[in-house]
Amino acid sequence: MGERGVPRAERRRRTEEKILGAARTLFAEVGFERATIRAIARAAGVDPALVMQYFGTKQELFQQAARVTPVADGELTAEEVVEHVLASLSVKMGEVPQGSLAMMRSMLTHPEAAASARQVLGEQIDRLAAAIPAEDARLRAALLTTIMLGVAVGHQLLELDELRGVSSDEIARLLRPSLRALTAEQVAGDRTG
Amino acid sequence: MGERGVPRAERRRRTEEKILGAARTLFAEVGFERATIRAIARAAGVDPALVMQYFGTKQELFQQAARVTPVADGELTAEEVVEHVLASLSVKMGEVPQGSLAMMRSMLTHPEAAASARQVLGEQIDRLAAAIPAEDARLRAALLTTIMLGVAVGHQLLELDELRGVSSDEIARLLRPSLRALTAEQVAGDRTG
DNA sequence: TCATTCGCTCAACAGGCGTTGACTCAACGA
DNA sequence: TCGTTGAGTCAACGCCTGTTGAGCGAATGA
């Protein structure tokens, strides 16, 4: 199967990367429980036992495959926050990293993925809250985050017909006023009915 | 174990309901794949074989347990749509029917659940779109729906700390301007930067 | 050159899964 | 009263899962 002259260390790195790639794809497509070690190994062109040897456990394989690199950011204004969130949604709309998709796909059924999701979302909420000038900044930031989560789920994972093929710009344009309404401090009173 | 004097038909109905209840709870808590027939039967105080005898297949059990009764509605104004959506979120916040939770919990990993979710959400989008006075009404309705989906997922299933114990009224109050921004036709131009 | 390392495969294990068929026994209808 | 029905159980099936230990053969370093 492979490249006779390649040194061991390099071969090992390549194989590990092949496995991680296959794992990311499968975890993203079918979630943690339906993505079997055997299927991942097959997709990577490798024996299932090798996957275990390299990653020890399906759990650890998932953790490495679904690791999301946290985007550390400086201080932002409220308006910048909106644009930042909108930009993160699109990232060219469909080029969302597979690791993130894997985590999202699994977060409702796999406890470890849920914990990761909570942490990642929690960090984003913290970052956003710092830029929202309101006493209930954390709650507003949480809603902002869940809004984007919902749109991402509906679009990337559920693949709702209505969102298919819609450009990220158009979604951003429609969503912008809604997000701004959350980041701007409410002054006017409102009625319930 | 059971009520000697109860007639057969009644016993049968009660047992079926016990199984469905246990199924709803487990599907809602851990999703389709992790909710085993054995665990459901145990929770219902019944033999696993009986579950199969009554429902035929785990798939059919899920379909019956996660059946969501569509709320058919008359025509609404745009503002009524917002209130309707907000009200549906709360339904006393935490008393979301377990069937719906089961469907939501499973929709990212179980194809059948995904199909159901698409259908239910699609119907809601249709209903909402009819009340939104804009050319891109369907897209706006879809975003409205995914927004509420995200909030529900974050609150009910992911149980984000920031949303825990927050009253539905407060969430509705914060979300209202955002939703109205989506239902009201945009007139003002907007800048991207 | 030769012993050693190590990437990788093979065959198997134990356990859990959905599902089935034979069975028990109380409720039923005549 | 007695045969029939049907609710419910029991033990087992075949399959698939994550995981393991023994082994093969090429790259490695002395």
Automatic annotation (TrEMBL), chains A, B:
MF GO annotations: DNA-binding transcription factor activity; transcription cis-regulatory region binding
Is Translocase one of the keywords?
A: no
Among Pfam families, the record links this protein to: TetR_C_16 (PF17920), TetR_N (PF00440)
Question: Which UniProt keyword terms apply here?
Answer: DNA-binding
According to UniProt, the name of this protein is TetR family transcriptional regulator
